[in-house]
Specification:
With 261 residues, this protein is of the alpha/beta class. It has one domain: Alpha/Beta hydrolase fold, catalytic domain (Rossmann fold), CATH 3.40.50. The chain is built from nine helices and eight strands. Strands 1-2-4-3-5-6-7-8 form an eight-stranded mixed sheet, sandwiched between helices. 43% of the residues are buried.
Length: 261
């Protein structure tokens, strides 16, 4: 069944990397954002009906230690080259959400030979025209309003009472995310490297994204030659949680169009 998956733990040069794997079809490597590591969601399950989905956790996420060598997104680009080697994958559909979209963008500029399609969901990484809100210093309730379009979902997330393990994991992941994106959630050199991307590119954006507004998606569409921008109505920054079927459907349709091209 598409909802079923397994967890495989890789040893990447001494770094423990849990990878959720499910589905069948062409390989799709899905890179999570600052949240969502180690979770198999309805979005993953919908994609797994058409792809073999590989969803690894970044170092420092999903209960893994944050290695000293992780200093920047560039370090994770080389890390994911090793992950692909360990999985025996030569060419992939590469998808990334927010922070994962930044990693995916940098990966596709460095190793265009490995990427057959690139899907970027509200990615950070390219310098925005206006400063992004700093969620690290905001009250959790206010931070949620930047992530979700539906206030009921935001309220439900705030109402959950975390246990000690959840609190520990949350702070560990915040520390990992802060090392990568706090103060400067972009690479000032990335914009001039985008022409190295050779794969067809799909940009997906929540219409009500307050963290990385749709205007940034339109900017990226202009910067990445031939890219396609699709806007998901009723979604904020975490569109894979709010509109999983719509988002997965857009990715599947994009892949089908490219296969026929």
């Amino acid at each position: 069944m598409s909802e079923s998956y397994r967890t495989e733990t890789l040893d990447i040069r001494g770094c423990r990397v849990p990878v959720l794997i499910g589905g069948s079809g062409a390989p799709l490597l899905l890179l999570h954002g600052a949240g969502g590591a180690g979770m198999w969601t309805p979005f993953h399950a919908a994609l797994a009906k058409h792809f073999t989905v590989y969803a690894p956790a970044h170092p420092g996420f999903a209960g893994t230690p944050l290695p000293d060598w992780v200093k920047s997104v560039a370090d994770l680009v080389f890390h994911y080259m090793d992950v692909l080697d360990a999985l025996g994958l030569k060419q992939i559909t590469l998808a990334g959400i927010s922070l994962g979209g930044w990693i995916a963008t940098e990966f596709a500029t460095a190793r265009p030979d490995l990427v057959t399609r690139l899907i970027l969901m509200a990615p950070i990484g390219v310098r925005p025209d206006a400063p992004m809100p700093d969620l690290f210093i905001k009250d959790p309730a206010e931070a949620m309003s930047y992530l979700f379009a539906d206030p009921n979902i935001a309220a439900m997330m705030r109402a959950q009472t975390p246990n000690a393990d959840m609190i520990t994991a949350m702070w560990s992941e915040q520390a990992a995310a802060a090392r990568l994106i706090w103060k400067r959630p972009y690479n000032p050199q990335l914009e001039r490297r985008l022409h190295h991307i050779k794969a067809p590119v799909l940009l997906l954006w929540g219409a009500e994204d307050r963290l990385v507004p749709v205007a940034h998606g339109r900017k990226l569409q202009g910067l990445i030659s031939g890219s396609r921008l699709e806007i998901i109505q009723g979604a904020g920054h975490v569109a894979p949680l709010e509109k999983p079927q719509e988002l997965a459907g857009a990715i599947i349709a994009f892949a089908a169009r490219q296969a026929m091209a």
